[in-house]
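Researcher: I need the complex structure. Ligand is S-adenosylmethionine. Inputs:
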Amino acid sequence: MTATVPTNPPRKPDLIVLRDPAVAAPPLVDSFQRRITYLRLSVTDRCDLRCSYCMPERMTFLPKKEVLTLEELYDLATGFISRGVTKIRITGGEPLVRRDIIDLFTALGRRLGHDLAELTLTTNGTQLAEHAEALARAGVRRVNVSLDTLDRAKFAELTRRDALPQVLEGIAAAKAAGLKVKLNAVALKGVNEGELPDLIAWAHGHGHDVTLIEVMPLGDVEEERLDQYLPLDDVRSALEQRWTLTDNAYATGGPARYVDVAETGGRLGFITPHTNNFCAGCNRLRVTATGQLYPCLGGGERVDLRSALRSDAPEANLVTALDEALRIKPEKHHFRMDARGADPALPRHMSMTGG
Ligand code: SAM
Ligand code: SF4
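Model: Output:
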């Protein structure tokens, strides 16, 4: 049933390819006729930062034995690729804190130009200086780096770690390694609200696109969500007082809508789960580091792929599990941001599903 993927020495056992010719399955199309071509694969729930909108300082992480091995993550990715997924984004928690994660990039990278079109990464950037060249060698061409502020003290307060210099070094290293860097910033009321134009201008000046994100009510954090929430419609109006924004048809198949900023010459995206629903074009599925598939970031539906993967007939059971995910993928998310003191819309943190 299995074959091995050749890898560069020295290294641990090779990653195993799931390949049972008896199991063939159709492309992934959900019950709303949306074709799924994009997988967001979380490789760890752990992180070296503690962003206040993402997780509490005393976060409880999963026991390591519950997390899929790199071999299992590769097998899982193979199951998705065999059903027409052409783009994989590795995420977390912080993916670069996982030991030997470059092995997974290297193995998946070998499929680029064959049955995989793009392999990307979302990272907080703290370990990027160390790994940028290896990522580029593996075939990664674009990375998303999360950066909410350029103010060191504010960064330390927001992420509860004094790591801004490391992150800036990581971004510079990624650029030097030839990676296209896009910055993601969560817009936070009273925190980075006044700084967003400077952040955007800085990013565009360095050749990086920026996407702004509305905060989502995922998991318990120590702060009141409604106090963090800044509607991007308001941000856009404020930016329009200062700059000329022109709608841009650029589409990544994702939820962001883009504008060009005439004065900076850069592109700016808006991810607006609250002020605009973007679910009709959803082309993605998300899998946690323990192999739990969440068909919708904003829904509680879940399919356990780990037990399929660890069963006696992994290929066949994976096909069945993915069919179930397609069947239950909801039409749209149901995030709401209108109740002060409300429980989180969903108990799981963004660090489980990787955004
Ligand atoms: N650690 C990596 C990082 O920060 O880029 C990858 C995982 S992180 C969960 C992915 C993205 O989710 C980041 O851009 C982060 O800012 C965003 N995020 C985390 N919690 C969020 C929330 N409650 N609402 C909106 N975005 C959130
Ligand atoms: Fe870590 Fe990313 Fe969550 Fe920040 S947003 S705590 S960097 S997982």
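Model: Summary of the prediction. Residues 1-17 have pLDDT under 50 and may be disordered.
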